[in-house]
Amino acid sequence: MQGIVFDIHKFAIHDGPGIRTTVFLKGCPLRCIWCHNPESQERAPEIFFIPEKCIGCGWCFSVCPNHCHVARETAHEFHRENCIRCGRCTERCYAEALELVGSAMTPEAVMEEVLKDRIFYETSQGGMTISGGEPMMQFDFTLDLARRAKAAGIHVCLDTCGEAPYEQYETIRPFVDLFLYDVKATDPEIHRRLTGVSNERIRENLRRLDRSGAKTILRCPLVPGVNDDDAHLLGIAALADSLENVQEITLHPYHPLGIDKCARLGKQPRLDDKNFATEDDVARWLKIIQAHCSVKTVRS
Predict the structure, then answer these.
(1) How far is CA 177 from the centre of its chain?
(2) How many beta carbons lie within 10 A of that of residue 33, not counting itself?
(3) Residue 156 is inside which H or E element, if any?
(4) DSSP classification of residue 222
(5) How far is CA 73 from CA 82, 85, 95, in A?
(6) Which class in CATH covers the domain with range 46-101?
(7) Which residue stretches of 29-165 are H helix?
(8) β-strands 178-182, 20-25: how paired?
């Protein structure tokens, strides 16, 4: 078995309790307009290209099997329409203008990296977080990782948008200590407009997980002027108060880092606002939710 992994981030402190290692898997069924990890959306490996870093060494021109890299006067052009994403052009790009995003790994190789930091998990009550993208898009691989971590005594968090068959959540639930569950919009049609899908199955999966006794943290990405209206904030509060096993609401203020990543992928961002959410924005969000909800609410 192999999965497509695009990052293994160590010493993560915002992906669940304690010090964690977060394993990022490629593939996502949503297309959020504010996505800060656009490289996670497609399941297949992709190529980051930063033309201003290119030093013109000529390596990629010589090794690309489809001649996707072309020198035009002083410019380096990358013709992605012919790219088969083999990654050969990235292997000796000393200037780091080209980078392969996503590679095949076995569960054993991933766990070898995760277990290297066991001492930090034990001293901080941390563990492993499986994230994405949407890790349920690679369900068999995600399930295998969760089982191995549980067998090794490692605390497991699953970061999910909730858009997957409930049977998969029921299967993986015994191996997950905490679900980090996204709440992107509480209104179904607004959710569809902002992410490409309705939230009806997402909400139902959350309710069923809660009834099963699964512990959750609601993770709420908030973008000023996009999904931070009072109706959504009150919806978050009402949703949290309706759950028996929710541990916390975590607010994730918008940051525009996905814009540069889109450029590296040769894609246009769907939201080109380059402004970070302000402290005043965050204070307003916290005030409204905390006034209408008994669940602990924090910012990431």
Answers:
(1) 19
(2) 18
(3) strand 155-160
(4) E
(5) 21, 25, 19
(6) alpha beta
(7) 59-63, 107-115, 118-124, 139-151
(8) unpaired
Task: Give the Cα separation of 270 and 33 in Å (integer).
Answer: 5
Rounded Cα gap, residues 135 and 129, in angstroms: 10
Which strand (E) or helix (H) includes residue 218?
strand 216-222
Pairing of the two strands 246-253 and 297-299? parallel
DSSP annotation of 253 reads E
| Residues 6 or more apart in contact with residue 53 via CB below 8 angstroms | 95, 96, 97
Beta-carbon count within 10 A of 276 CB: 13
By C-alpha distance, which of 223, 279, 298 is closest to 255? 223
**For residue 186, what are the CA distances in angstroms to 27, 112, 182?**
23, 39, 11
Q: Using one digit for the tens of pLDDT, what is the confidence trace for 194-237?
A: 999 999 999 999 999 999 999 999 999 999 999 999 999 999 99
What is the DSSP code (8-state) at residue 182? E
The architecture in CATH of the region 3-43+103-299 reads: Alpha-Beta Barrel (3.20)
The letter for the amino acid at 146 is A
Q: Give the integer Cα–Cα distance in Å for 60 and 78.
A: 10
Nearest to 29 by CA among 223, 256, 205, 235: 205
**Which position has the token pair 């590679």?**
103
User: Residue 273 — very low, low, confident or very high, per pLDDT cuts 50/70/90?
Assistant: confident
- What are the start and end residues of each CATH 3.20.20.70 domain in the chain? 3-43+103-299
Q: Are 191 and 157 in contact (CB under 8 A)?
A: no
pLDDT in tens, 67-89: 999 988 778 999 999 999 999 99
pTM score above 0.85: yes
Cα–Cα distance between 132 and 6 in angstroms, integer?
Answer: 8
